[in-house]
């Protein structure tokens, strides 16, 4: 039978179930990655599993998010992570070595393998022909302990790329087009598999831009074939031996096919405050721009920065624009330093930062009040830049460089210059000295005062006797639930971090929830469609669970967040009739009787609100119901034993 690339890789890794879309399957994970902001919690949970060393082929711990180091917290976290890596057999990519996804692509990714990462942009690895999936830290910890990863077997949709991109139009415009077609919700359980003659016109980092930002569609992952271009990339990294060919079989059947004509694409932009809010640059031309940020795991490759350097060479940044450039990795920075392009960027007035997430996560370079900030990153959620009223637009490096020069939104085709065609070196300068190999000795684990305890919840009670502590609308992201930016340094300290839950939506939430919890009431969150979009941060479940949230009742959930809620003992319930969302208000008392019993028997639930009754639903596997009943994954595996 003819097979898609997705099916081939999944089938090679199946541990439970069959490749039948919609059914639960379990797959073997070959590689894992963590980053520091989700990593500390992942490793605290890994330690609690009592496993002597990681059981994967390769596990890497990156430090790239919390590197600002105002106060001791970040540095203490880094040291904790380094000691854990050394002891348990994990490679440690030090702060300054680069953004996890870019470095993983350059140094570790292998076609045909599976990668589970505690970061939602782990699908970046799909640019190399891998299945890269984002998950909560606890699921990644389980994979490191040798446990399979459970997920719903995805449908596979082919994105048929035809032709070739015109000058000034680039990979970012392709993924912005995909976002225009698919939007940011309603795509749970799909893989986007790229094919067509246009694929061979795109290099691996360009493919990785596309698979990276595919995350914003809310899909399981995206994948490209592994072909001659993949081989060339790995050769330039000195890793040709890691290459294997993976292509789709002729006549393979897809669950859907969408054509994209590359020749017809034009420079695009995602407008505030959602990556699915797509226009062409021409439609918003002339808007005055205050800040331009180039970098992030979406667009910070050698090719991206060389293109920007080519555009800026001999020109100056507009006097009212602050131009920030964050290279994706030390490798990219070193290569552009050696060939002189870095000097061109500096001469143009760029503020070049160390290779980290930085501006993208809003923990530095927040723009001025009311600013228009244009960025090459992947998320423009409300408040994420660190400046509440900033208007953030997402676009390609070419369009960002054009705005840096003119001070306004500009279609780069109108710059009146020749497009700088970048030649990628046959062999990059590479130096892995910032990646530390573990000694596996019984080093003492360093625990500064910022390192807390692994989070446990209590089992699901007999009845939910609660109160609607907050009612929110559609497309609430994990950035709305628990902000990153300046608050992110508390990632290892749940009681401190929990004070900021829903800070952006409702500053009184945390106090109210604490008060209700202490009075013995269960907190309930009511939400619209696509609840929990965006980041994989499990803190968006852990912190509410710490505040006594037992139920989220929403119109629909995004995949990673729903899994995180279950892992931390919060029941994700949906409305049987979506219109009932209107029947329930913040501050109302809610009773859901016999939850424990009915959940155990997989029977429907009824929520009683004053004199009204609302039918609520859940779609949980046996395993997920057992996890909830136990009070979350740590309690569940405590009973069952992990990695044994
Ligand atoms: C993000 O881009 O939102 C993050 C920060 O990388 C998150 C992870 C986190 O919150 O630590 C993600 O994408 O998963
Ligand atoms: Fe870092 Fe931004 Fe990428 Fe998240 S999206 S991993 S914060 S660069």
Describe the structure.
The chain has 21 helices and 27 strands. It has 644 residues and is of the alpha/beta class. It folds into three domains: 5-264, Aconitase, domain 3; 268-414, Aconitase, domain 3, CATH 3.30.499; 464-640, Aconitase, domain 4. The strands form six sheets. A seven-stranded mixed barrel has the order 21-22-23-24-27-26-25. A six-stranded mixed sheet has the order 7-6-3-4-5-20, with helices on both faces. Strands 17-16-15-18-19 form a five-stranded parallel sheet, covered by helices on one side. Helix 7 links the parallel strand 10 (190-195) and strand 11. Helix 10 packs parallel to helix 13 (397-406). The radius of gyration is 24 Å and the shape is globular. It starts with a helix and ends with a helix. The mean pLDDT is 97. The structure holds alpha-methylisocitric acid and iron/sulfur cluster (SF4). Residues 65, 99, 119, 121, 296-297, 357, 360-361, 377-378 line the site of iron/sulfur cluster.
List keywords for this structure.
single chain, 644 residues, alpha/beta, Aconitase, domain 3, Aconitase, domain 4, 3 domains, 6-stranded mixed beta sheet, binds alpha-methylisocitric acid, binds iron/sulfur cluster
Average pLDDT score: 97
Helix content: 25-40%
Bound molecules: alpha-methylisocitric acid, iron/sulfur cluster
What class do helices, strands and sheet pairing give? alpha/beta
CATH class descriptor name of the largest domain:
Alpha Beta
Rg (C-alpha, Å): 24 Å
Number of domains: 3
Low-confidence stretches: none
Strand content: 15-25%
CATH-defined topology of the largest domain: Aconitase, domain 3
Oligomer: single chain
CATH architecture of the largest domain: 2-Layer Sandwich
- The total strand number stands at 27
Q: How widely separated are the two ends?
A: 36 Å
Strand order of the largest sheet: 21-22-23-24-27-26-25
- Shape label: globular
Major β-sheet annotation: 7 strands, mixed, barrel
CATH superfamily of the largest domain: Aconitase, domain 3
Count of alpha/pi helices: 21
